[in-house]
UniProtKB/TrEMBL annotation:
It is a multi-pass membrane protein. The chain crosses the membrane at residues 12-33, 45-68, 94-116, 136-154, 166-185, 191-213, 270-295, 307-338, 350-368, 375-397, 403-424. InterPro entries: Poly_Biosynth_Transport, Polysacc_synth. Pfam families: Polysacc_synt. It comes from the Bacteria. This is Oligosaccharide flippase family protein. It comes from Aquamicrobium soli. Keywords: Cell membrane, Membrane, Transmembrane, Transmembrane helix. The keyword Protein transport does not apply. It is found in: Cell membrane. Its main location: membrane. Signal peptide: none annotated. PANTHER family: O-ANTIGEN TRANSPORTER-RELATED (PTHR30250:SF11), PST FAMILY PREDICTED COLANIC ACID TRANSPORTER (PTHR30250).
Amino acid sequence: MRSLKSLISQSADLRVFSLGLIWSVLGTVAVRLTPMITTILISHWFGIAAVGTFGITYGTMLSASFLASSGVNLMATRNVAAYAAKDPVTAGRLAGMALLLAGGCAVTLGLLIFLFSEAIAVRLLRQPELAFYLRVISPIIVVTALNNTQIAILSGLQQFKTIARLNTIMGCLMIAAVPVGLYFYGLTGAFAGLGTAYLAGGLIAAPATTGALRQKGIPLAFRGALSQWPMITGYAIPALLASLLFEPVNWICTTIVVGNPDGLQQVGLYFIAMQLETLLLFAPQIVVQVVIPMLSTGFGEADRRRVLNILGMSIGTNIAIAIGFVAVMMLFGDWFLILFKLDPAQHWPIFMVVVFSSAVIAGALPLGQIPVSSGYMWTGLCITGGWASTFIIGTWLLQEHGALGLVIARAIAWSLQTLVYIGFTRFAIGRTCGALTAQPA
C-alpha cells in the first residue's frame, strides 16, 4: 500500500492539473479563435489569395515575436517555478531578466523587419506587395513578445486563474478590434486592430504580473538581473536556438511554396489548414501549459512517481481529446471546409492529413516538455533540429504539391519526432529520477 503522503501528493497534483486546465481553457478560447474568425471573414470578403497574404504576414509576426521571447519564456516558466519557494530573490531576478531580454530581442527584430521589408518581400517571398504589411506588423512584434513573457512568468507561478482572466480580456479585445478593422480598412485595419489588442492586453497584464510576484514574496528586479547568466547559457540560449529552428520553420516552408505558380492561394489553403490544427490542438496545448511547471517541480525533486503520474494525466487527457476531435472532424469535416468557401471534394485530402497529424502531435506534446523540465535543453535543441530539417527537406521535395505537400511534410516530421521523444523520455526519467523505489505502507 502506498503511503498517505504519496496519495496526498498525487491528489494535490491532480487538483492543480484539473483547475489549471479548466481556467486555461476558459481563458484561451477567444485568443485562439480570433485568427480563425479573421480567416473566415477574409476568405468570404477577399478570397483565398488574400488569406495567403494575411497568413504570410501574420506568420512573420508570430515567428518574430516567438523568436524574441520563446527562449527566455521557457527559462522563466521553468526556473521561476523552481525558485519561487526556495529562493524568491533569484526568481525575481530571473523574471526581470526575461522581460529585459524579450523586450530587447523584440525591438531588434521588429526594427530589422521594418528596415528590410522590401528585401524580404521581393527577394525571399517574391511577393512585393507584402512589404507594406511587413512594416505594419513590425511594432506589433514588440508588444506581442512582452505580453507572452508576462504570461510565461505567471505560468511559472501557476497563476492559471489570472492567466485565464487576462486571456479572456485579450480575446475579447481581439474579437472586437480585428474584424472591425478588417471591415473598414482591409488587411491593414486587421493588423492595426491586432496590435491595439496586444498593446492593451500587455498594459493590463503588467500590474497583474507584478501583483502575483508580490503575493508570492518575489521582488521583481531588473538591476542585477543579468547576474543570472548561467540560466541564459543553460536554458535560454538552447531554447532560443530551438525557437530559431522551430518557430520560423513554418514561415520558411511557406516561403518555399509561395514563390511557385499559384503560390499565394496554396499558402492560403495551408493557413486555413493550420487553423484547423489550431482548433484540434487548442485543448492539448493548454494541457502542456499546465504541466510544464508541475513537471519542472517533479524533476527538481527527483520524484519519479510524480513525474510519471503527471505524464500519465497529461498524455491520457490529450489522447482522449484527440480521439474525440478526430471523430467529430470525420463526421462534420465538410462543414468546416464549406465555412471557408472550400470544395470538400477537392480539398478534403489536405485536411484529412492535418486531422490525423494533429492527433499524433496531441499525444507527443507532453513528451516534448521533458527536455525543458528535466534540464536537458541542449538535447531538446538537437531533437527540434531534426524535426526542422525533416520538415524543410520534405517541403522542398514536395513543393510542387503546394498545400498538400506542406501538410504531408509536417506530418512526417512530427511522426518521427514523436518516436524520438518516447525514447528520450525513458532516458531522462531514468537518469534524473533514478529507479522507482517502493513506498512504505
